[in-house]
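Async update (no meeting this week)

Hi team, since we skipped the sync, here's where things stand on the single-chain job. The sequence we agreed to prioritize is pasted below, unchanged from the tracker. I ran it this morning and attached the output directly underneath so nobody has to dig for it. Comments welcome in thread, and please keep replies under the output.
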Amino acid sequence: MSSHDIKQGAAKPRLTTSAMIASIADAGQRTRSAPFGHALTALAAEHPEIVGLTADLAKYTDLHIFAKAYPDRFYQMGMAEQLLMMSAAGFAKEGFIPFATTYAVFAARRTYDFIHQTAGEESLNVKIACALPGLTTGYGPSHQATDDLAIFRAMPNLTIVDPCDALDIEQAVPQIAAHPGPVYMRLLRGEVPLVLDEYDYTFELGKAKRLRDGHDVLIISSGFMTMRALETARLLETDGVSVAVLHCPTIKPLDTTTLLREAGVPGRLVVVAENHSCIGGLGEAVATLLLDNDVVPSRFRQIALPDTYLDAGALPTLHARYRITAATMAEDIRAWL
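Output:
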């Protein structure tokens, strides 16, 4: 090996296991910093009934911005997620609007019964915003919430939101605060990509929005997979494949009218793309909706994480391995066509 080869090898950045606060933004991509924290802080200026609670994760869920602005309305519950949810329910019982933040794995797996018996069964006004949804950390199964939608979709009275980008989060915060009853929102934090402002998009709770039209393929997506779907559509466009993208940020309740209309367009391959296990998430929800209403697309496929415990490692490597990058999505769709 020559000295030139050695220097070239040394210049290549080494991918490392993603930190808990890792951003999913690509190099050079437009971002906004801490959209949830800033949106909640702005909303709280007009609503003194809003309080913020976390289980030792203010910095890692962007709630530290709210805490700095309103220290007397911020509650640090320590590493006690069950206490966090019970306390949030107590605040809601007294007329406050509590926003409780933690990691999605802790809310879904560790506190489910506490949310179910208080916020769920009593339909209390608790807002749960959780970082690290799906495959957004490289720290392995203990922190990868690949099953949170499957778990929470089974809970009655719970609204579920999976925003795509910074704009989605900023617009979702006041709407979920105004919505009566419990809400679970998957949270992107830190430097969050900004994508949807290019598509004349406005978040509406309970509504799916078509971002682009196409006659060969319809991609139904949520979360950052909508960003990937838009990238995939541009890749396939160079091959002459026309791709429509339907962003579905509200997982429960589904926008049944829009989904049935779009999936019912004849001749299109329908693909559901999600940052979640292939079990129990948006894909199965959409498939059930279509079957229940006798809407049978010519072809139906899922792009989702496998039904297994995922590896630890660098996020770009893991996203490629589990085929949720734009490049792998385009490959799969070409093969299905």
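Quick observations from my side:
The chain has 13 helices and 14 strands.
Residues 1-9 have pLDDT under 50 and may be disordered.
Reply here if anything looks off.
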